[in-house]
Amino acid sequence: MDTGPDPRQPTPHADQPTPASRPVAVACPFCRSPDVEPMALFGSHLMTEHYYCRACRTPFERVKDDQGA
Ligand SMILES: [Zn+2]
Fold first, then answer.
1. How close is the Cα of 68 to the center of ligand 1, in Å?
2. What is residue 4's predicted lDDT score, i.e. its pLDDT?
3. Is the pLDDT of residue 59 over 90?
4. Which pLDDT belongs to residue 57?
5. What is the Cα–Cα distance from 69 to 3, expressed in whole angstroms?
6. Domain for residue 6, yes or no?
7. Residue 47 domain boundaries
8. What's the 22 CA to ligand 1 centre distance in angstroms?
9. What is the mean pLDDT of residues 4-33?
10. What percent of the chain clears pLDDT 90, i.e. is strictly above it?
11. CA of 63 to the centre of ligand 1 (A)
């Protein structure tokens, strides 16, 4: 069978960096700074994580999204 010349098609999986492969970075919701550090867990909020932004010195909490599954 003659299928003709096979044109080199661009693969959908190019060598572009996939942002999904990066670890989840927590950024400050107030100043968008990634310079945050996790605070001690209080135990009462299992679905949330407390962080402290060292940029604007504001504590904030982040809701975990790994529930269910
Ligand atoms: Zn901040």
1. 29
2. 77
3. yes
4. 97
5. 46
6. no
7. 25-63
8. 21
9. 72
10. 32
11. 17
pLDDT, tens digit, 9 for 90 and up, residues 1-10: 777 777 776 6
| Higher pLDDT among residues 20 and 58, named by residue | 58
The C-alpha atoms of residue 52 and residue 36 are separated, in whole angstroms, by: 5
Question: How many Cα atoms are found within 13 Å in the side-chain-facing hemisphere of 59?
Answer: 7
Tell me if 56 is assigned to some domain.
yes
Is the residue at 43 inside a domain? yes
Answer yes or no: is 32 within a domain: yes
Measured CA to CA, the distance from residue 38 to residue 55 in angstroms comes to 14
> How far apart are alpha carbons 44 and 47 in whole angstroms?
9
Residue 44 alpha carbon to ligand 1 centre in Å: 24
Cα(19)–Cα(53) distance, integer angstroms:
23
